[in-house]
Amino acid sequence: MTEVAKxxxxxxxxxxxxxxxxxxxxxxxxxxxxxxxxxxxxxKLYPSSSSSAAAAANQQIILNDISADTVDKVIQxxxxxxxxxxxxxxxxxxxxxxxxxxxxxxxxxxGYLTDRVSPDTCIGYWRVxxxxxxxxxxxxxxxxxxKEFGKSSSSSKLSRVAEKMMKELLEDDxxxxxxxxxxxxxxxxxxxxxxxxxxxxxxxxLLTLIRWSGVPVEYIKSKLITNSILMADRxxxxxxxxxxxxxxxxxxxxxxxxxxxLSTGVxxxxxxxxxxxxxxxxxxxxxVDLQLTTKSQNLKQYRLI
Length: 305
Fold this sequence. Notes:
Elements: H1 3-6, E1 18-22, E2 25-29, H2 31-37, H3 39-45, H4 50-56, E3 60-62, H5 68-80, H6 90-99, H7 103-115, H8 122-131, H9 135-148, H10 155-158, H11 163-170, H12 180-196, H13 203-207, H14 217-224, H15 228-231, H16 234-249, E4 269-276, E5 281-289, H17 295-298, E6 302-303
Parallel strand pairs: 1-3
Antiparallel strand pairs: 1-2, 4-5, 5-6
Helix pairs in contact: 2-3, 5-6, 6-7, 8-9, 14-16
């Protein structure tokens, strides 16, 4: 145990020169250690103005919105460089580390959560990651949510998906589903859960992210046009009316997405007969995949004969 760590077990508090008050609990700490470890405390304990500096001497700092148990874990990390994390405490410790601007502890918490991302935790951990700007954790959670989307039929589970998260999932080509009807079913379950929770969402914007070439007219009429939430929104009604017209006539309109998702196994391509390369015209027959997005991919040709 280091000399700094030994200060934690000093019950006399004879070297303590600052107190942290959390609810009815007092933590006896040391100004220099707090200031060196936390920019948050450095600003409070060593302010730039002389008048503030005098007030900061031997002061008691009150911490709100953090539990005593969480502060105890954070102080332990401050003095020893280690702390105990568990599934029940890590999110609170992460929130405290974010508030107190302790990036090293945030990194420890992020690593703990990343190792435990699973179908049961990916939605909740994604929300946590978004709140404290942990991009790597958010990406890991999103990737698993994309794989599990077609299996997410529980209203209680889907209710935890924020609107921003749902938008990111629906617009991603890597969303794993057997058909676009599965996308609609999951979206409608989520939409109903948001209404039950009293949340308002931009349903029309989310509808534009569905790949309507894979949704039959009969399904739209029987499941979507009859939904009270969608029909109460004029923009949703107008958009779905255009979708029905597109599915009946084949005439696309601005804002409609038609490319199938990769997981459905449906390919959209064009067959070209005769290639003009600038110097000569060949009689080759090639197929070009329309769903490949980069320039180099779009130029990739598959010889048929």
